[in-house]
User: Which sequence fits this backbone?
């Protein structure tokens, strides 16, 4: 059952048979979130939390539902509760870092991503987000170190490649920066992530005197 509507139909059937089937309710909440009905998902997950408070997985989905509704403060609070409920849940720390970044608290975001990576050292999204956050804070040596670590696992990641290529460019090796970024595979990277890579690619081309290529990347 790869389609959310199929999974939700099953959840609805199970709930009709047993309105207290928490697993079916959990599935329905996930299906509502999959089709971007974040308000509907939030109602379901808050109901599950009321029945049995303190489940980290439910609290994470409450936070994600708030995030989908643009409520970053409420999302961060839910992720904080999830971390408190289960300090060994890396996703709670990761998503808390994302919410903190969106709230502008980059120092706290760095700490949250670090906690995630202590629990799951190969968590590529956390490595990407930590490298990006450090880069945005101009903590460039730390960003490059985290970027190098992430590139070993995800060599085609545009953010990690951009962080490394920016370091190459600052060392005067624009050729290496251009080569790395131009060799990135076509992907479904988010517009923000793709824009970061294109910005550095434009800077590197400009440093090599390829001004047209630079403007093409920046455009």
Assistant:
């Amino acid at each position: 059952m790869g389609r959310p509507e199929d999974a939700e139909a099953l959840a609805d059937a199970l709930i009709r048979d047993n309105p207290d089937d928490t697993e079916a309710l959990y599935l329905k909440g996930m299906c509502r979130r999959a089709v971007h009905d974040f308000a509907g998902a939030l109602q379901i997950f808050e109901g599950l939390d009321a029945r049995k408070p303190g489940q980290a997985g439910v609290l994470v989905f409450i936070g994600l539902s708030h995030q989908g509704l643009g409520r970053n403060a409420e999302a961060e609070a839910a992720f904080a509760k999830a971390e408190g409920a289960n300090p060994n849940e890396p996703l709670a720390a990761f998503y808390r870092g994302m919410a903190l970044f969106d709230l502008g608290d980059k120092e706290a975001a760095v700490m949250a991503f670090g906690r995630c990576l202590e629990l799951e050292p190969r968590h590529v999204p956390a490595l990407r987000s930590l490298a990006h956050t450090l880069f945005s804070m101009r903590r460039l040596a730390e960003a490059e170190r985290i970027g190098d670590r992430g590139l070993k696992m995800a060599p085609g990641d545009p953010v990690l490649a951009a962080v490394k290529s920016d370091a190459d460019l600052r060392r005067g090796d624009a050729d290496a920066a251009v080569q790395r970024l131009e060799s990135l595979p076509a992907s479904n990277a988010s517009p923000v992530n793709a824009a970061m890579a294109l910005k550095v690619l434009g800077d590197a081309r400009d440093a090599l005197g390829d001004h047209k290529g630079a403007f093409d990347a920046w455009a």
